[in-house]
Amino acid sequence: MKKILIFILTIIILIFAYNEYKDYKRFHPKNANYLANENIDLNYHDQSVVYDYNEAISTLNGFVLMQWSANEIDVKHPEDDDAQTRHTVSEYSKKLAKVKFYEAKLIQSKELKSQGLSNADIESMESKGFSLKDHANHIRSEKFKKMMVKSLPKANLIYQEKSAFVYEMQKLLVKKGFDIPVDGIYKSITSEALKGFEERNQLFPDGKIDIITLDKLLE
């Protein structure tokens, strides 16, 4: 009888010790803590985001540990469904969402840099709300504008003059709603379309291209 009691007592102690060990393993920092993602951009253009990301992780991990040690609530795998547990799990979700928000920005930044973008490019994208495709289109558009301004003839275009500049100008006029041929040849129909565009935009309507009219065409 004594041996049986000792055996039962041993089993109880082992079960208790095992449960304690499981809790220890579950909430040991190595297993319980949220770890910073390795694929984040530590040189992000706004260093305050990197700081906020690390602070959010620290706050999240402290919250998880505190809730377990003080209230015995496992916010990751709650065992109860009482009001306090639901509230605590909700708070945990909010703190985790904050971490994920910063993390997503930093991961995206690193991915964009791997495609050749700089901090300045990424900052510009974010300020304008551009996607990568939008940004690429914006860069091409700005490059095109610079080329057109650089190619702007110093003298007035001559009737029947043919050039790449006239061709691109005609394409711009078509985009603005004018039905003209796009052949690169400066004729009266192109001049009249240019004059109509100037009238529509309260510019001096002389049908001649200058930097002011070109700038408006490029908008």
Q: Please state the average pLDDT score.
A: 86
How many separate domains?
2
Total number of beta strands:
2
Helix content: 55-70%
How many angstroms does the end-to-end distance come to? 96 Å
Radius of gyration: 34 Å
Order of helices and strands: HHHHHHEHEHH
Report on this model:
- This protein is mostly helical and 219 residues long.
- It has two domains: 96 residues; 86 residues, Muramoyl-pentapeptide Carboxypeptidase, domain 1, CATH 1.10.101.10.
- It is built from nine helices and two strands.
- Strands 1-2 form a two-stranded antiparallel ribbon.
- The longest helix is centred in the middle third of the chain and has 32 residues.
- The mean pLDDT is 86.
Question: Which terms summarize this structure?
Answer:
about 220 residues; mainly alpha; Muramoyl-pentapeptide Carboxypeptidase, domain 1; two-stranded antiparallel ribbon; 9 helices; 2 strands; rod-shaped
Brief characterization of the structure:
By secondary structure, the protein is mostly helical. It has helices spanning 2-27, 29-32, 47-71, 83-114, 119-128, 132-151, 164-175, 188-200, 211-217, and strands spanning 161-162, 185-186.
